[in-house]
Amino acid sequence: MTDDSQLGLRRIERETVQERVYAILRDKLMRGGFAPGQKLKIAELAAALGTSAMPVRDALNRLAAERAVESLPNRGVRVPALSKDSLQDLRETRFAVEGLAVERAAANMSSETLANLRRLIEAQSATDAKHVSESSAEQNRAFHFTIYRQSNSSVLLPIIESLWLQCGPYLRIASEMFDGRDGRGIDFHVEIVDALARGDAKAARLALQSDIGRSFELVMNEHAIWQRRGGIA
Amino acid sequence: MTDDSQLGLRRIERETVQERVYAILRDKLMRGGFAPGQKLKIAELAAALGTSAMPVRDALNRLAAERAVESLPNRGVRVPALSKDSLQDLRETRFAVEGLAVERAAANMSSETLANLRRLIEAQSATDAKHVSESSAEQNRAFHFTIYRQSNSSVLLPIIESLWLQCGPYLRIASEMFDGRDGRGIDFHVEIVDALARGDAKAARLALQSDIGRSFELVMNEHAIWQRRGGIA
DNA sequence: ATTATATATATTTGATCATAAACCAAGGGG
DNA sequence: CCCCTTGGTTTATGATCAAATATATATAAT
Question: Chain A partners of B99 at a C-beta cutoff of 8 Å?
Answer without folding.
Answer: 96
